[in-house]
Amino acid sequence: MSKAQEAYKEELAKRNAAIAKVNTKANDSEERESPEFWINVGTVSDTGEFISLPYGLGLDTMRFSERESGDTTYMMEVKNSLLMVIRELVQDMPAGSELTGEDLEIPLTVRIRRVGKSTTSTPARGRDLLMSALKKRS
């Protein structure tokens, strides 16, 4: 085995140990912590105000992927690496501050995926208001 392969295996073992530690802590309901860092998805209004979805994702309490169906081991490692990189980048943020994907120099993208049976959709109430706000930006 080459030195590079040995170094990779050693790094992988360290990551797996870190993942197991975080997941064990996240699964222990008595030790569950409230997130300090949040990822919020939303849009910016024409007045510059950030309008987020009602709930964010707790970044520092998010569990690492152990393996999702359909994911290869490689993709699982990439997802966990993204989580670690983002956590490292925000670690020194002052309380009350905010960063965007541009600030982090990470091209974050939002994707929405639907699972389950297909149905005919109808526009939700309030959609026209949001769409008019988005049209003003373009």
Give a description of the structure.
42% of the residues lie in helices and 7% in strands. It has 138 residues and is mainly α. The protein has a domain at 34-110 and 126-137. The longest helix is centred in the N-terminal third of the chain and has 25 residues, at 3-27.
Secondary structure elements and their pairing?
Blueprint (H helix, E strand, L loop, with lengths): L2 H25 L10 E2 L2 E3 L5 E3 L4 E2 L14 H18 L10 H4 L22 H11 L1
Antiparallel strand pairs: 1-4, 2-3
What descriptors fit this protein?
138 residues; single chain; two-stranded antiparallel sheet; mainly alpha
pLDDT < 50 stretches: none
What percentage of amino acids are in beta strands? 5-15%
Radius of gyration: 19 Å
Mean pLDDT: 78
The major sheet is characterized as: 2 strands, antiparallel
Structural class: mainly alpha
Strand order in the sheet with the most strands: 1-4
Number of E strands: 4
Helical fraction: 40-55%
Distance from first to last alpha carbon: 55 Å
Shape annotation: globular
Order of helices and strands: HEEEEHHH
Number of helices: 4
Task: Summarize this structure briefly.
This protein has 138 residues and is mostly helical. The protein has a domain at 34-110 and 126-137. The chain is built from four helices and four strands.
